[in-house]
Structures are given as C-alpha cells and as structure tokens.
Amino acid sequence: MYTWNSFMYSLCKHGRSKEAAEFFDSMTSKGLKPDIVTYSTFLHEYATEGCLADMINLFNSMEDNGIVADCNVFNILIDAYAKRGMMHEAMLIFTEMQEQGVSPNVFTYAIVTAALCRMGSLSDAMDKLNEMIAMGLQPNKVVYHSLIQGFCTHGDLVKAFLK
C-alpha cells in the first residue's frame, strides 16, 4: 500500500489529481482497500482545490468503509473550512472530532485560533488558548503569532502583550 499511496501523493502534489483519482480507481478495482493515508492524500487535495463537497463526501465514504478518522484527517477538514471563513462548519467538525474520541492537538488549536483571530473573534480565540492549556498542550509560535496579530489588527495592541 505504501507504494500506491506514495504514487498518488506525488501525482496530487504535482497538480495531477485526475490521474491520481484514476490510479485510486484502478487500485480499488484490483481489490486493494484504501487506508487512512490514501484518504488523507485525497482529502488534502480536495481541500487545497476548494472542493469541499467532494472532501466531505470522501470523508463520509471513508467512515462508511470502516476507516476511523484520526487527528490529521480532522485537521484537514477543519483547516479547509477555516481558511474559507466558514467557522461554523469548522467548529462543527471540531466538535465531531471530540465526540468521536479524537483529541485535538497543537495543530488543531493553531488552525482554529488563527482563523478566529483573522475573523476578529479574539475572545473566542483566547477561550481556545485557555482550553488548549487546560488540556496540557503547549501553544506553539503559530498560536501566539495569530493572537498577537489578531489583537494588533483588531485594535487592541495592549491586550496583545498583556494576555
């Protein structure tokens, strides 16, 4: 499976997603079952291309085929929505992730915090920072940079340094 996944990843990485999809179809027609890496590759590609309906359909098909989503898969989905300012959808996925027993990681919180700051939802972003710390996760520079930039952009330079 490693070789198949590597090949499909390379095709997607070089803008040849249609060929990767044909390769995927060929793989499944030979009786090979896609794994979480296969699905992650295509979810990321759909997210990058902005094909969110295809992304969610693939996510649902992944679950229908017995593949359990991990934190990376949920991060792809959350990031896709967050980058497009669709925070309601991003937060629904964030909630679904936790309901399925998958704990958010530092990258999940970095995605959510950055998006909330871009939207000017600084109070919500601070809530996510506090939630992250309460979970025992150490915020990374992306989280802090997003918060500082958010507070500076949205007119509260003092809070950027006091928080």
TrEMBL record:
Q: What's the protein here called? A: Pentatricopeptide repeat-containing protein
User: Mind listing the UniProt keywords for this protein, alphabetically?
Assistant: Repeat, Transit peptide
Under Pfam families, the record lists: PPR_1, PPR_2
Q: Where are the PPR repeats?
A: 1-34, 35-69, 70-104, 105-139
Q: To which species is this protein native?
A: Triticum turgidum subsp. durum
**Transit peptide listed as a keyword:** yes
The domain of life for this entry's organism is Eukaryota
